[in-house]
Write a structure and sequence with these properties.
Elements lengths: L8 H8 L7 E6 L7 E7 L2 E7 L8 H13 L17 E5 L2 E9 L11 H18 L12 H19 L1 H15 L8 E4 L8 E4 L2 E5 L6 E4 H13 L6 H13 L6 H27 L13 H11 L1
Antiparallel strand pairs: 1-2, 2-3, 3-5, 4-5, 6-9, 7-8
Helix pairs in contact: 3-6, 3-7, 4-5, 4-8, 5-8, 6-8, 8-9
């Protein structure tokens, strides 16, 4: 979450007039994350989160709205999308010469943590399993937006910049890992809705218990084990001496609700490499082709190069 589109008090009041959330009291931009413009808004009915979608396909936005409403209805602690007076889940706003879509969702209690302890990792794994189980009854499907074709094209786009800025070894690692992953097959793994981006800034805690999962805008249909690999890399792999124990704690939490199949366990080391490659490439792209924004964060690509090397050992 960042702020690329700046909104005034009048803009916020104009948006809110089509909701039943009461008068606007205050609002503030949210700096964490990198994809959309996000604001806390305080109204007569409490605190909510308003999101302006910056570079997402407008045709896909209804999928995310319906998914969040479905998961919330199924008992997952996640943002519920507020309905407008006409029953719609999205609003539109003109920002300069552009027309952008946005939504307002419930604001969950709890806070994000920079580092998770063993108990929190266990709770996070359990929460991810709950998400996967709740999503089983969601009938809609969405293709992976950062699949093999995306990797191929983005590695080509960053190739020259990586060579010049990070050296030949980094360029060779990108290409060799891509070739390895292209030789793998994940089609037979059990799949369904995955979060796709369960980093520490997308999971909320109240003490050692998970109080909510947020930011579903990378959700799609894929092997559940891929979601586990993404979360393990993001939450458990700290490139330290306790990484294996940290991953084990997360997996034990996950399997307390959903036991992994033998083929999922067998493919998890490969998926950990694929997940590391995917986020290394996206961070390289953002670093080499930065976007402007009023409040933005560009995350360090080197973290995921090191995580990829860790899993290749």
């Amino acid at each position: 979450m960042s702020v690329y589109t700046e909104l005034t008090h009048a803009d916020m009041a104009h948006i809110l007039k089509d909701y039943h959330l009461g008068a606007l009291h205050a609002f503030e931009g949210i700096a964490a994350g990198i994809e959309n413009s996000n604001f806390f808004i305080d109204t007569e009915q409490g605190r909510f989160v308003l999101t302006i979608f910056e570079r997402m396909d407008a045709m896909e936005l209804p999928y995310f709205m319906r998914l969040m409403r479905h998961l919330a209805k199924e008992g997952l602690s996640c943002p519920d999308v507020m309905q407008r007076s006409d029953g719609s889940l999205l609003f539109e706003i003109h920002a300069g010469d552009e027309k952008k879509s946005g939504c307002i969702v419930s604001c969950l209690h709890g806070k994000t943590l920079d580092d998770l302890n063993m108990a929190q990792l266990h709770a996070s794994g359990r929460a991810l399993a709950q998400l996967h189980l709740a999503g089983q009854s969601f009938a809609e499907k969405r293709d992976n937006p950062t699949g093999m074709h995306w990797l191929e094209t983005h590695i080509e786009k960053v190739s020259d910049g990586v060579r010049h800025q990070y050296g030949e070894a980094a360029s060779d690692l990108l290409k060799s890992e891509l070739l390895f992953q292209q030789s793998q097959a994940f089609d037979r793994l059990p799949q369904g809705v995955i979060h796709g981006d369960l980093f520490v800034d997308n999971i909320l805690f109240d003490g050692e218990e998970v109080s909510g999962i947020i930011d579903f805008y990378y959700a799609h249909t894929a092997p559940w084990a891929m979601d586990i690999a993404i979360a393990l890399n993001a939450q458990a792999v700290a490139l330290g001496d306790e990484d294996k124990l940290r991953m084990q704690s997360f997996l034990e939490g996950y399997e307390s609700l959903r036991v992994l199949r033998a083929d999922e366990k067998e493919m998890l080391p490969v998926l950990l490499r694929l997940a590391a490659l995917r986020f290394w490439v996206s961070r390289l792209f953002d670093a080499l082709f930065p976007r402007g924004g009023a409040m933005t964060q560009t995350k360090d690509p080197e973290e995921y190069r090191k995580k990829l090397l860790f899993h290749r050992m």
